[in-house]
Amino acid sequence: MSIRLVSRRTWGAKTPTAAYTRIPGTEGVKIHYTGGHVPPAILKDHEECGKLVRQIQHMHMAGAREQPYIDLGYSLAVCPHRRVFMGRGPFNLPAANGPGLNTGHYAVLALVGSLGFTEPNDDLLHGIRDAIEYLREHGNAGNEIKGHRDGYSTSCPGGPLYAWVKKGAPRPHSPAPTPVPPVPTKILTTEALVKNLPVIKPGDEHRHVKTMRGLLFARGYEPANLHATVYGKDETDLIEKIRAFKDAKKIPSGADDLIWDSACWEAALT
Predict the structure, then answer these.
(1) Which of 93, 104, 142, 178 meets the CB 3.0–4.6 Å disulfide criterion with 28?
(2) CATH number for the domain formed by residue range(s) 5-166
C-alpha cells in the first residue's frame, strides 16, 4: 500500500516523557476528531496541519485531558491533504480512547472539527483509510473500525465523520485529489462563527465556557481548569488570563474587563 507518512521529526514532535507501554496488537481502530474550531484555511495551507498536531500534543502533555499524557494520545493523525502524521505508532498503547479502552483499539485522529472545517473531504477520508491499513499491516490491528463514542460518552468523532464510520469507512469513489473549495476571507469566517457564540460573563454556565478556556490555552494563556463549563465569579486564575489576553490583543474593555464578548471570540479564532 502507499501511504504518505509524516515522521515525528518532520512535524516537530516533542520527545515522550516516559517509555510507551507495548501491546501485541488490537481488535481494530477507533476514529477521533479534534472537536472545537479547525480553521478552513487548513484546506489550502498544509503548514496549518503540522501546527495543529503540535498544539494538540502540547495540550495532551500539559494535562488538558485531566492528567498529563507522556505524548500525543493518538497512534496516528490524518490531515485533509492525505498526509498521515506519526503519533505513538504501531504496537504502542494509545491514550485517547478512554479509561480501560486503549488496549482494544488504536486511536486515529482526523484533523476536522465541530466549527470551521467540519465536513471531511475525500483526501482526509483516503488518509484515514491509509492509516487503518498501515496499522493492520504494521501493527497487527484487527478489522474493527469504530468511533470514539463507541464505548465512551462523547460526541467524538462528530456527526459527519461518525456517519462515514458507521458505513464501514469506505474509500471515496474517486482516488483523485479533491478540488479545494474557495476559502472564505477571515472577516467572513469570523463573522459567521462569532454570530453563534455567546457573550460570557462571570457567573455564567454554558458549554462554550469550556470552548473559551480551550482557546485561551491554545493561544498561550493557560487557565488552570480547562474543563469547567462555569465561569466562576471568584475564579482568579481565569480572570487573570482573560485580562492578559484582552490587554495583549488591545481589546477595549472599560468597566467590562471580565466579559468575554464578540471581540474576544474574533481575536481568539483568527
Answers:
(1) 142
(2) 3.40.80.10
